[in-house]
Every structure is written in C-alpha cells, then in structure tokens.
Request: fold
Amino acid sequence: MTPTEIFRLLPDVIRRAASRDDPLDTLVGVMSAMHTPTVETLDRLDEAFDPQRADEDLVRMLAYWVGVDPNDGVSTAATRALVARAAVLSRYRGTAWALVQHLEVATDVRGFVVREPEDQPFHLVVEVPTAAAGQVERVRRIVAREKPAYATFEVVEVER
Reply:
C-alpha cells in the first residue's frame, strides 16, 4: 500500500491535521514499507498455485497434493503438466484412457495402448511403443500406482 492509499483510510480529522514531514507522515511511510511485501505476495498468489508458473519446489509439493509422484524421474515440464491435468486424471483414474494420458505426459511419447485380454479378466497389458523403450521401468512404476487395485498387469514393448 502506498502512503497515499493509507492516508485515504484515515479519518477526515486526522487527514486535515496532517502536514508534510510531521510524525504522522513518517508513521504512514513506515506502515507502507511494512505492508509492501505482503501486498506484493498477495498480488502474485495465483502464481503460487499455478503449476505452469510456480517455482519448482512448489510444483513438487503440489504434485504430492494431487497424487503425482515427482520422484518418478519425470521432467519438471511433465510434472507441471500432470499437476495441471490432475483433476481430470483423478476423475477417470482406473480407466485405460487416464492411464494412457498419464503415461503419454510422463514419458513425452504417444502411442501407448492398454488392453484387457479376453482370456485373462482383471489383467492389463500395457503396450509401450519403441520410442519409450528406454523408459520401461518408469512405465512399470506408473502403471503399478495408477491401475485399478484389483488388476494385475504386464508391460510389453511393441514396435510402432
């Protein structure tokens, strides 16, 4: 808050009596200096919780809040994207669509397929495209965490 804004909040009788370089002027200057950091923080509060603009440490904390593991070796950009999509992904958690979306964002590779073989109910086969062959362990960790609790799974590499 600027000294002028603070002066506007004072009662009329005090504003009329105030003059330049009196103790009240100094006090209002000190009040302004004390309020400035808080006002600046409040002006940028939306930035703190926006995963695209927040600093990296806060993004990691936001990731934990929304159930994304930032220790998966996923890039910061991918973590930011997963946090931003967390509401939609959690709404559809346990579905093949949500699992594919999560894997595609986490690995930055398209082409994952999740299927349930007819002869093996409650078993998922996650097909990893060759472009993500070096990330199979990460894919396994993500699938183990994001799949339905009742299902078993296997991860297979396929050529696409």
